[in-house]
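Please fill in the sequence for the structure shown.

STRUCTURE ENCODING:
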């Protein structure tokens, strides 16, 4: 394969830039031409792209966001949009595509490879960590570290006022950001979409912790359950302790990627291009048990994300 394209799609995630860099540099290493496609599938449909070289990706390894920009593209759900995307690729002589994004972006990639025969490699770039086939997605580690920074600060003020803090974190329908932030910050309780909760039980646990000498409580709420405002209001009506809600919000998507995310970015980008160079498409790359893996894209998107109940129990045991 001599000419490939790369795009970032869906929600942005820290490490996408480092991954674009790895894709471009690996392609150039093998003497391939590489086009950076702007704004996800929109750039493919509208033929908005630029040829990239070694120096196009200088000074981005440490930057959050994506230099190619990203978008949610409704046209890509339609047959006309998909055909236009394929036409752009054919007109440009682009033989293979690297798609960096979440599960939705992977469905677009699956469609291009399965229905139209475009060799495509998916790289899991999303803070949500909601893809079953890979232990970690690109951006998750940085997002959790951003949450930790905020939770640490909240703990200072909550302890001073002996309050309960309800911290809403992202993750869509997946509770992983809440689970990992909860364990790593020492939060007492996490509330995630995968497990139903009982507010009376939460109040009991808070009362027990106060009786055991705690001066504040941290509850991590996954956005898939509801908002911190609604949850705090409900909790406040059932306790005499003062409750404050905080939404971490879009800061979770930004910031310089962590070492872990930069390492994933380098390895994912490198493997994706090596596969295309060998004429292999229709795969996704990931990390499993600390090993870089690739897998059939159809199999990967059909896997249902499992929640880590053992980690949840660990939190329950060590948090009080
Ligand atoms: P994140 O997890 O960060 O939200 P994502 O990749 O899951 O990222 P989506 O908005 O679900 O984000 O998908 C991104 C884009 O992928 C969509 O806007 C659309 O262009 C394309 N896409 C999603 N699903 C499909 C599909 N079934 N067929 C074709 N294209 C799709």
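FILLED IN BY: designer on duty
SEQUENCE:
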């Amino acid at each position: 394969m001599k000419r490939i394209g790369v795009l970032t799609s869906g929600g942005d995630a820290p490490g996408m830039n480092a991954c674009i860099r790895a894709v471009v540099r690996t392609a150039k290493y093998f003497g391939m031409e590489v086009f950076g496609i702007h704004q996800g599938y929109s750039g493919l449909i509208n033929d908005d792209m630029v040829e990239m070289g070694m120096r196009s990706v200088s000074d981005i390894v440490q930057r959050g966001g994506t230099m190619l920009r990203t978008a949610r593209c409704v046209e890509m759900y339609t047959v006309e949009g998909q055909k236009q995307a394929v036409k752009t690729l054919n007109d440009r002589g682009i033989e293979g595509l690297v798609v960096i994004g979440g599960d939705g972006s992977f469905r677009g990639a699956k469609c291009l490879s399965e229905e139209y025969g475009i060799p495509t490699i998916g790289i899991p770039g999303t803070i949500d960590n909601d893809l079953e086939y890979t232990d970690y997605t690109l951006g998750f580690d940085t997002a959790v570290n951003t949450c930790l920074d905020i939770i640490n600060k909240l703990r200072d003020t909550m302890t001073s006022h002996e309050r309960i803090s309800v911290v809403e974190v992202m993750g869509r329908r997946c509770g992983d950001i809440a689970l990992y932030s909860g364990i790593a910050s020492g939060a007492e309780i996490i509330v995630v979409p995968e497990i139903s909760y009982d507010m009376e039980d939460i109040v009991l646990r808070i009362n027990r912790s106060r009786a055991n000498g705690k001066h504040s409580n941290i509850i991590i709420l996954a956005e898939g359950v509801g908002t911190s405002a609604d949850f705090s209001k409900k909790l406040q009506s059932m306790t005499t302790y003062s409750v404050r809600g905080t939404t971490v919000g879009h800061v979770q998507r930004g910031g310089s990627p962590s070492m872990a995310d930069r390492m994933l970015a380098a390895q994912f980008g490198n493997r994706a291009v090596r596969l295309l160079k060998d004429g292999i498409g229709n795969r996704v790359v990931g990390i499993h048990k600390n090993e870089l893996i690739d897998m059939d894209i159809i199999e990967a998107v059909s896997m249902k994300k499992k929640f880590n109940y053992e980690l949840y129990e660990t939190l329950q045991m060590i948090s009080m």
